[in-house]
Design goal:
mainly alpha; Arc Repressor Mutant, subunit A; Tetracycline Repressor, domain 2
Length: about 240
C-alpha cells in the first residue's frame, strides 16, 4: 500500500503539478482511505521522500556499530554512501523527484531539513570520536558539512544527467577530496567518470597530475575579495 500511494502521488504530481494535487486525490487514485495515507506519511511532503526516515535510521545504526579503531573520516564517508544507495536503487524515481523538487520551493525547503538531519547524524558520531580534543566539536561539524557537500555535489551531477553513468564512482571521487583533506589517505582509484556530454579523457591535460590537489582556506565572513585572494595565494605558496 505504501508503494501504491507513492506511485499514485507521483503520477498526479507529473500530470497536474504538486501544488494542484491533494491528499484526497492521491488516496482516490490509490483506492484507499485518508487514514491509510496518514498511517504511512505524516504529510504530502513526506510522500515525496518516502525512504529518508529508513535511510537515516540505517545510517545512525551503521555509525553506532563502528569499530572503536575505525578511521572516523572514512567511516562517515561510508555512511554517506548509504544515502547514495537509496537513490541508486531506483534511478528513474530519483530523477523524477529531483525535477519535482527543483520546481517546488516548499519541497526544496523540506529537502534541506532532511539533509540537515543527515549532517547532524554524521557530526554526532564524529564528536564522539574526537571527544577530548580541544577542537573536537569544530572538527566534527566541519567534516560532517564537507562530507554532505561532497556527496550532494556528486549526487546532483548524477541526477542532472538523468541517472546515467556510475553514481558510485562519481560520489567516491567527491568523497576522496574530504578524506584527502581531513582523514587518512584514501587508496588510489580510477579517475572520476566524465560528465554528461564530456568525452572520456577530457581531463588528460598537462595539469591532470595536479587534479587531486586541494587547498582549503578559511576566511572571515565579509572579508574583502582581495584579502581572500591573498589568503589563497599564501596557501598555495605564491607571493
Amino acid at each position: 500500500m505504501r508503494d501504491a500511494l507513492v506511485a499514485a502521488a507521483f503520477q498526479l504530481f507529473l500530470e497536474r503539478g504538486y501544488e494542484q494535487t491533494t491528499v484526497d486525490d492521491i488516496v482516490n487514485l490509490a483506492g484507499v482511505g485518508r487514514r491509510s495515507f496518514f498511517r504511512y506519511f505524516p504529510s504530502k511532503e513526506d510522500v515525496v521522500f518516502p525512504d529518508h526516515e529508513r535511510c537515516l535510521a540505517d545510517m545512525t545504526a551503521f555509525l553506532a556499530d563502528s569499530e572503536a579503531d575505525a578511521e572516523p573520516v572514512a567511516r562517515v564517508c561510508d555512511a554517506a554512501r548509504l544515502v547514495l544507495s537509496m537513490y541508486a536503487e531506483n534511478p528513474s524515481f530519483s530523477v523524477q523527484r529531483y525535477r519535482l523538487t527543483k520546481k517546488v520551493p516548499g519541497l526544496r525547503a523540506y529537502e534541506l531539513s532532511v539533509v540537515w538531519r543527515y549532517e547532524r547524524a554524521l557530526a554526532a558520531y564524529l564528536r564522539g570520536r574526537f571527544a577530548g580534543r580541544s577542537d573536537g566539536s569544530l572538527r566534527a561539524d566541519v567534516i560532517a558539512s564537507a562530507v554532505v557537500a561532497a556527496h550532494n555535489n556528486a549526487l546532483r551531477s548524477w541526477l542532472r544527467s538523468d541517472g546515467q553513468g556510475d553514481a558510485s564512482a562519481t560520489v567516491d571521487h567527491a568523497l576522496r577530496y574530504v578524506q584527502a583533506a581531513f582523514g587518512a589517505p584514501a587508496p588510489p582509484s580510477s579517475p572520476a567518470p566524465a560528465a554528461a556530454g564530456q568525452p572520456v579523457g577530457a581531463e588528460d591535460s598537462e595539469d591532470a597530475e595536479d587534479a587531486e590537489d586541494v587547498v582549503v582556506v578559511v576566511s572571515r565572513r565579509g572579508a574583502p575579495l582581495w584579502r581572500v585572494v591573498q589568503e589563497i595565494e599564501t596557501a598555495l605558496g605564491r607571493h
